[in-house]
């Protein structure tokens, strides 16, 4: 049996230690030449399955000497059906799913490699292993020990409103991380979202005066983002939290992007019920105007306890969004109706910006 392998790559020698599981069938771990080929293929950026045609690609190249402890588990050629079933049962769980669910025939697992990082990865990105769909098992295995995180702070944002002093230290520390564990201290808001807050109400809606107070805060928060050319693109009830004083906090900037109002965006993203007509039409759109449409949806739901546009499926929903016609089940003031119509205008160029919304008669009455 091979105890230690050294493989010369185009960049540097990489040392790998091969470990056999004591309960593995002997015919799996009895071919040193086969194991050597496996390791050679691994560090050469392609790992071949036992099953013909299956390939796993290594997405990153090594730049310095690393040592990995790897356990080879193979359900390929030469294994009895009983051994296959045992191995699938023992090792077949991937991200909480049983291997048989992914491969009901119980074959084609090919090669599963369990890696434990013993050194540092030179490029700091980690090792990604991915099999081709239809060949063996699709899975990812990522190793991270040293992270070179990208600077995610935009200087134009940092230098605004004294934000730089609050982010300067974090930016320096997150540029390069060598610790195995990282603790990030963040403000605790609470678990109450605007969605859960509305669900607690009898009619799933709020009094107009309360809506006005909360909605003004939402617009103020979004206006601040827009003043920095930050577009949220996923404004919805679930992404607005309430603190202990019932003040709002806008969260989840996963779809956000820095884009001036003069630029056109193409990415189809967001939550269907909040998408603007131009997004569901899959044409170029102005991010700020799409956010304003989502504000209209939020305002409607807070006042009416339901969404203005519905459908049995997304296609039907999108058709109704494009039409832009809605009805109010509960009476609201004329000024509130007027604002709703302006926000939910299918012509995006006619929607007000956040600055104009803050000057609206209803919000200031």
From TrEMBL:
A GO CC term attached to the entry: cytoplasm
Name of the protein in question: Protein kinase domain protein
Transmembrane segments: none
The keyword ATP-binding appears for this protein: yes
EC number: 2.7.11.21, 2.7.13.3
InterPro entries documented for this protein: HATPase_C_sf (IPR036890), HATPase_dom (IPR003594), His_kinase_dom (IPR005467), Kinase-like_dom_sf (IPR011009), Prot_kinase_dom (IPR000719), Ser/Thr_kinase_AS (IPR008271), Sig_transdc_His_kin-like_C (IPR004358)
Matching Pfam families: HATPase_c, Pkinase
Biological process terms in GO annotation: intracellular signal transduction
Signal peptide: none
Protein kinase domain boundaries: 115-363
UniProt-listed SUPFAM superfamilies: ATPase domain of HSP90 chaperone/DNA topoisomerase II/histidine kinase, Protein kinase-like (PK-like)
Organism from which the protein derives: Ichthyophthirius multifiliis
Gene3D superfamilies listed in its UniProt record: Histidine kinase-like ATPase, C-terminal domain, Transferase(Phosphotransferase) domain 1
GO-annotated molecular function: ATP binding; protein histidine kinase activity; protein serine/threonine kinase activity
PROSITE patterns: HIS_KIN, PROTEIN_KINASE_DOM, PROTEIN_KINASE_ST
Domain Histidine kinase: 1-147
Highest taxon of source: Eukaryota
Keywords, ordered alphabetically: ATP-binding, Kinase, Nucleotide-binding, Transferase
The keyword Signal is assigned to this record: no
């Amino acid at each position: 049996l091979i105890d230690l392998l050294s493989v010369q790559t185009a960049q540097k020698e990489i040392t790998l230690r091969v470990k056999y599981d004591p309960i593995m069938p002997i015919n799996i771990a009895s071919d040193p030449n086969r194991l050597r080929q496996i390791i050679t293929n691994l560090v050469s950026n392609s790992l071949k399955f036992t099953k013909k045609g299956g390939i796993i690609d290594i997405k990153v190249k090594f730049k310095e000497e690393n040592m990995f402890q790897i356990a080879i588990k193979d359900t390929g050629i030469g294994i009895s059906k009983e051994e296959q079933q045992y191995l699938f049962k023992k090792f077949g769980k991937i991200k909480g799913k049983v291997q048989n669910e992914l491969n009901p025939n119980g074959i084609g697992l090919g090669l599963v490699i369990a890696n434990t990082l013993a050194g540092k990865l030179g490029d700091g990105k980690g090792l990604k292993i991915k099999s081709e769909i239809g060949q063996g098992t699709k899975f990812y295995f990522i190793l991270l020990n040293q992270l070179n995180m990208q600077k995610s702070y935009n200087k134009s944002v940092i230098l605004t409103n004294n934000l730089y002093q609050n982010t300067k230290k974090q930016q320096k520390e997150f540029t390069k991380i060598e610790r195995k564990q990282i603790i990030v201290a963040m403000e605790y808001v609470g678990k109450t979202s605007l969605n859960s807050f509305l669900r607690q109400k009898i009619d799933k809606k709020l009094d107009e005066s309360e809506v006005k107070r909360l909605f003004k805060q939402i617009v103020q928060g979004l206006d601040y983002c827009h003043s920095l050319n930050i577009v949220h693109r996923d404004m919805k009830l679930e992404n607005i939290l309430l603190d202990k004083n019932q003040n709002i906090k806008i969260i989840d900037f996963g779809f956000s992007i820095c884009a001036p109002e003069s630029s056109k965006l193409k990415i189809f993203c967001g939550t269907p019920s909040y998408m603007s007509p131009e997004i569901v039409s899959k044409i170029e759109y102005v991010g700020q105007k799409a956010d304003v449409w989502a504000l209209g949806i939020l305002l409607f739901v807070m006042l009416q306890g339901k969404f203005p546009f519905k459908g049995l499926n997304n296609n039907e929903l999108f058709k109704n969004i494009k039409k832009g016609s809605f009805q109010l089940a509960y009476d609201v003031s004329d000024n509130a109706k007027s604002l709703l119509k302006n926000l939910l205008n299918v012509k995006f160029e006619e929607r007000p910006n956040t600055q104009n919304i803050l000057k609206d008669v209803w919000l200031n009455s």
